[in-house]
From TrEMBL:
It holds the Pfam family DNA_pol_B. Residues 107-193, 203-296 form the DNA-directed DNA polymerase family B exonuclease domain. Signal peptide: none annotated. Keywords: DNA replication, DNA-binding, DNA-directed DNA polymerase, Nucleotidyltransferase, Transferase. Belongs to the DNA polymerase type-B family. It is an enzyme of class 2 (transferase). This is DNA polymerase. It comes from Pseudoalteromonas spongiae. Its EC number is 2.7.7.7. GO terms for molecular function: DNA-directed DNA polymerase activity.
Amino acid sequence: MVIERTFSGLILTKQQFDRDGKLTLVFWLKSKEGPVRVEVTGEQAVVFCLSEDAKWYADALNREGIAFEQKSLSLKHFNQSNVSGFYFTSLKAFFAAKETANEVGVTLYEQDIRHAERYLMERFIQGQAWAKGQYKFSQGVHCLYQAKLAKSEQASLAAHELTCVSLDIECSGLGVLYSIGFYNANYQKVVMIGQGENHEWLEWVADETALLKRFVAITQELDPDVFIGWNVIDFDFSMLAKRAEALGVTLSLGRFASQLRVTQSKINKLNLPGRMVLDGIDMLKNASYHFSSFRLGQVSYELLGEEKLIQGGDTLAEIERQFKHEKLALAKYNLQDCKLVWDIFQNKSLIDFAIARSKLTGLDLNRLGGSVAAFTNLYLPHLHRAGYIAPNLGDSPVQFESPGGYVMDSLPGLYQNVLVLDYKSLYPSIIRTFKIDPMGLVEGLMEDDAIEGFNGAQFSRTKHFIPSLISQLWQAREAAKKAKDETMSYAIKIIMNSFYGVLGSTGCRFYDPRLSSSITMRGHEIMKKTKQLIEKAGYQVIYGDTDSTFVSIDGEACKATCNDIGKQLVNKINSYWQAELSEKGLDSALEIEFETHYQPFFMPTLRGETTGSKKRYAGINQDGELIFKGLEAARGDWTRLAKEFQTELYQRLFSNQAVDEYITQQVSALKSGALDDKLVYRKRLGQELEMYRRNIPPHVRAVLDYQLKHPDFFIKRGDWVNYLVTLDGPVYLAEGDVSEVNRIDYQHYLDKQLKPIVEALEKALMLNFEQLVNEQQSLF
């Protein structure tokens, strides 16, 4: 008796392969009833070519004995040429057909779209799906055969409904395994090679083979939906795969006892059917988090206030030493690393963020950086239904450099009150308002009543998709904000803001500089008009950057007055755009907001010049916080001396306190050695030491000089270097203790750390740093 069942679940992994000469697609879902394996058969792989090439291509396929089905389609290329489709029942035939096209010089379109992904995108399936098919329960898994998938609008599973395990390995420099750690809320264990005292969290095995087999057994026991780790794909799983191959151990880590496969592909590098692997570094980067370093110890310290158990020096040497002499200490270190990763994921809701992104884009949970792929996923099915195929990479008919965002010349100086007015998601708003869209450009160039863009662009008023996609995302974000779903709101913001970058990327098949320039140049136009409207209202614009305008309010206006002025300007500008664009038959999505009130505010000059700087300013915001943008106190490559000095200097400036005495005191303290502990530079190695050959920067010189005296010292790319500048050159601080360093070059710190900070303020403070220092010296 054939039983049919239906499940709704989150898509974990997808595969495509030939079986019995037929294309087979397998999707693994996680449902509330558990994991579900969904097998889809009877699908065909497809490519397109221009109809004028179809006969030539068909003849070539027939000569090669490649089975195919040809269809004349009601689809067109962007150049309005008709298109034919070629369909293949197996991957073998599909790849052979691609090779044949290369040999006979026939251009194929959309040949790079993976079939499993096409199956989902053409059905508008994003992140989760309904699956229906013939049901069987096998190996503890719900299985559907001859299945069909459809879009699911049900609420997706949350992170806590997925079984997740944090994984970390320890090994020698040669890749010989020592231990494997596992961590989640209910299970904490380290499996280590050797013998020792038994602990609930520590298990001993005889050798690497036993370690790998125990890894497989624990994975099957815990049955995780998601593995998390730190550099877990490129290091941990890659190393496990290499050692298993060398030792002849089969790593049946996937569901249905499928094997782990690691390839050199940049995308889908790791294949683990039924289980997703998420890397903490990639997750944080793609969620737009920034840290001084993405090494686990640094991130955990900045986020959690916790550190790794082995710090500084040669970590690898210490790991090898502990394995030989202190295995218990190494096991604790291994488990602590697992816990730190787990806590970071929890702290930033990274799995929920991955789920939200997948629901919005249709990409795999671990494919967070694929902005171009996400755009293709969202746009392509709409394009097909409108009668077009996608162009190939590099098909843009025009080539020129599109300008960047508008940055206004600043008026430097000290201001009592500055209002910041900011356009809400300016570029997405421009796309919505002016209907900027790849197909819209193609159609608009053929219409008489099109919306004029820039550099010859014309956009259709009715035939487009991106404006409506952004509108849907916009509404979804407002709903997420209302529901206080910060994770979803943030994910939507990143996707919306990526659309401009995608359209301006030569790595996107829809790239056309007329698209990106029609966004940025419209932004220039809007910012210039905004300045005019504000000045017409009687206020001075002192700076503007991309979507933000800085407005000076004269006199000693109180906070309430400034707030009222800010609201009035916002209403005036928004009303102008509504009326102006309505006359052109457009609905304005432009919305400027009153973002911040600085009281006071300082815009510095360029160093050594009288012209104002850009992207550099400081002020006290409406919450009473001292804010630095682009200045030394906000940068990681300046010393603590510079940061503290600048912060105090601006505090005094903004509170009308005299600064002359403070400057001379700091100079005197610097020269006396009282501030030595604040003189440490901290800079990361951007590449391996041997790659620095010609222009050797100070932090590298410090390390090279240290190695001459300590030949066993090891440091690698990405490590941080602490150093001081002395009269003998830069000196590396191995332990961070400055008291052991002699002959510090105080003049260097005076010229390179204090002087530049004061020079930016000289006009406002009516003083001269050189004169002040010289006068101080003459007193001695």
